[in-house]
Design a protein that fits this description.
Helix content is about 50%, strand content about 5%. It is an alpha+beta fold. The chain has a single domain, classed as Orthogonal Bundle (Cytochrome p450).
Length: about 475
């Protein structure tokens, strides 16, 4: 039976179920319920709370979809599920003030809409949860990263930091990115059999973002660990275990403490790094507060690292599984720029994005009320046949590959898009040109996360 035909209640029933199931609204053990939920400089990308009762006939459609998405076959390849949903229920009503969309038009409209908010505390679902879990207010009161802020606060913060991420500024990093990449490839050549993630995809972006921030090279490893742990908090709660919650909170506190300790040293001995620049940044007399600066560092670390790891990993695997396209790239390096867009479209490192409606909105012919949250599946939008011919085929010369939505859109379009493109182009381009006999040694295991999609390990023979 399709998910779209599994509805067993309407919105009102869904709301009453949520109110009647407060224990299920917070599935954490009692020892953790008095602690604020894991966060990423604000609220999770999706505030989706599984309002699942003990009987499966009362489960809402969003929970059914997420459960399907969590099945091993769909984790490995979610795109057939997205295609099925796009055909059967392009705008999926969950019954608990949350909706999912799977098509390009809805995602494009939502991400660029003016009458929406990225602040989850403005959603009806959050307010419903707050009524049954007052401890959520602790989370709402924490400083939010600009990822979860609206204008004018978002505009102010983005303006202060955006100068470090303009295409012209990023272009000046090309030599440094190439040098780091070449050194990593030299190590790969010495080994022969390697793990692409551990030996290239992971260390390159963490080295670049730490260098940009002015983090000592000796601390890169622990920064990478913090980043990897914090990204677990982006997933819907159904996918976050008790041990994950403890690890996320520990990583957040450790990173905050590290950054607070670093700031006085940067004030006394400023350098050319981004943290020093932010400390000195003035925009019509404006400065970042210490809390804002710490939250910004956390955002830049995670957003500037984990997604690029997945771009390099996912992109390389896609090429190795499509040897005709790999040959095309080797034969015509001028394709590299378009190839990165196509690889981003084909297997997006970021699969979910969300907005909260400040006014009613019509999506896909469905009127959605103000206050409801809409979660758009970027991976589904990027495979929409209405936009992309042969969407399930990897075509590096695809003329409209740059219409993918992997970097989001609107005022929250990825600040680090130019840096991610540069790192992906250099890493993948140099890897496939240097090693002509590059081969997968085993099927790579996909990671357990759903918002960020990437491989845990990619074993390669690089000779």
């Amino acid at each position: 039976m399709s998910i779209a035909k599994c509805r067993t209640h309407k919105q009102v029933a869904g709301r009453s179920q949520l109110q009647a199931s407060s224990d299920m609204a917070d599935r954490r053990p009692p020892s953790l319920r008095n602690r604020a939920r894991p966060h990423f400089g604000g609220l999770p990308v999706t505030n989706y709370v599984v309002s699942m009762s003990e009987t499966m006939d009362q489960i809402d459609d969003g929970s059914i979809f997420l459960t399907e998405l969590g099945r091993p076959a769909n984790r490995e390849n979610p795109y057939p599920l997205f295609a099925k949903m796009r055909q059967e229920s392009p705008v999926l009503e969950t019954g608990v003030n949350i909706w999912f969309t799977f098509d390009h038009q809805s995602a494009h409209q939502l991400l660029r809409a003016k009458n929406v908010s990225s602040d989850g505390t403005k959603s009806t679902s959050f307010k419903n949860q707050l009524a049954h879990d007052p401890n959520l207010q602790q989370l709402a009161d924490r400083p939010k990263s600009m990822l979860f802020l609206d204008a004018p606060e978002h505009t102010r913060l983005r303006k202060l930091v955006s100068a470090a991420f303009t295409p012209r500024t990023i272009e000046r990093l090309t030599d440094r990115v190439e040098t780091i990449t070449d050194n990593l490839l030299e190590n790969i050549a010495d080994k022969g059999d390697v793990d692409l993630i551990a030996d290239l995809a992971y260390p390159l972006p963490v080295a670049v973002i730490c260098e940009l921030l002015g983090i000592p090279a000796a601390d890169e490893a622990v920064f990478g660990q913090w980043s990897e742990t914090l990204t677990k908090g982006l997933d819907p709660p159904i996918f976050i275990s008790e041990s994950d919650q403890v690890e996320i909170e520990k990583a957040r506190l450790e990173l905050e403490a590290y950054t607070r300790d670093l700031l006085p040293r940067r004030r006394q001995q400023p350098g050319s790094d981004l943290i020093s620049g932010l400390l000195q940044a003035q925009d019509e007399g404006d400065r970042l507060s210490e809390d804002e600066l710490i939250t910004m560092v956390i955002l830049l670390l995670v957003a500037g690292h984990e997604t690029t790891v997945n771009l390099i990993g996912n992109g390389t695997v896609a090429l190795l599984r499509n040897p005709d396209q790999l040959r095309k790239l080797r034969d015509d390096p001028s394709l590299q720029k378009n190839a990165i867009d196509e690889l981003l479209r084909f297997d997006s490192p970021v699969q979910f994005s969300g907005r909260n409606l400040l006014e009613p909105m019509e999506l896909g012919g469905t009127e959605i009320p103000a206050g409801d949250q809409i979660i758009t599946l970027l991976g589904g939008a990027n495979r929409d046949p209405e936009i992309f011919d042969q969407p399930d085929e990897l075509l590096l010369d695809r003329p409209n590959a740059n219409r993918h939505l992997s970097f989001g859109g609107g005022i929250h379009h990825c600040l680090g898009a130019a840096l991610a493109r540069l790192e992906g182009q250099v890493a993948i381009g140099r890897l496939v040109q240097r090693f002509e006999n590059l081969e997968l040694m085993a099927e790579p295991p996909i990671g357990t996360r759903v918002v960020l999609r990437g491989y845990e390990q990619v074993l390669l023979s690089a000779r």
